[in-house]
User: Which sequence fits this backbone?
């Protein structure tokens, strides 16, 4: 049997990375790991402790010294959702709220946080057969991944998709707030000194501004199957 692949999906915020990654993992029988959920879980932990705020950044020393007390796990629930748990409590919905989106970049730029989470991510993908999405998967977490995809789309398309998602959860967020948040997160991701968001040299770029979900999935499934052929 051919060795199962490691698939790294990186890209800008709200480009549909996790939707694609989940569908691909399901179709291939691979494990799906949402690395962004891990950064969001640490951000939520820090938010609850009062160690981070949108305006004044974060207390790096406090966060870094308690990382070993932050247990992040994923569990498949009855609806087939791979839900995120923080110290045993389900936080899948809470980590997606704007309160967390507003502070997560402050936490994601801390080198100690990144080192800690990268080690966990590498352990989860040790045996291959994994689809992981994030910002540094093809560059830092799995530089030897057999398939690397870098996803992007226009700002307006991304904000509209994200707002539609948030509207379903009745968060009452404006289009402008969503647009500004994703642009701010992209900027922070691309400009941080540790593991900035950048396409790996051997990544295939996927701009899905005008592509539907089904066509995109078929294209990536073809790439995957060709690598296994
Ligand atoms: O994928 P997401 O939007 O849920 O990720 C949340 C934040 O975490 C994002 O703004 C950047 C950060 N992140 C990161 O720095 N590295 C990753 N591998 C994944 C996410």
Assistant:
């Amino acid at each position: 049997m051919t060795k199962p692949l490691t698939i790294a999906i990186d890209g800008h915020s709200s480009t549909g990375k996790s939707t694609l990654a989940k569908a691909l993992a399901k179709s291939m029988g691979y494990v799906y790991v949402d690395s962004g959920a891990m950064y969001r879980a640490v951000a939520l932990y820090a938010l609850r402790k009062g160690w981070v705020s949108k305006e004044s950044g974060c207390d790096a020393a406090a966060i870094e010294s308690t990382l070993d007390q932050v247990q992040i796990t994923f569990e498949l629930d009855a609806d087939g959702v791979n839900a995120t748990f923080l110290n045993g409590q389900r936080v899948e919905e809470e980590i997606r709220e704007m309160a967390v989106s507003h502070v997560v970049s402050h936490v994601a730029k801390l080198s100690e946080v990144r080192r800690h989470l990268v080690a966990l991510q590498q352990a989860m993908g040790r045996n291959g057969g994994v689809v992981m999405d994030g910002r540094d998967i093809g560059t830092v977490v799995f530089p030897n991944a057999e398939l690397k995809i870098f996803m992007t789309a226009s700002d307006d398309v991304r904000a509209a998709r994200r707002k539609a998602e948030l509207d379903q959860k009745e968060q009452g967020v404006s289009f402008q707030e969503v647009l500004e948040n994703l642009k701010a997160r992209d900027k922070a991701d691309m400009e941080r000194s540790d593991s900035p968001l950048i396409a790996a040299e051997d990544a295939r770029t996927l701009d899905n501004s005008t592509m539907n979900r089904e066509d995109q999935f078929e294209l990536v499934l073809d790439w995957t199957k060709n690598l296994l052929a």
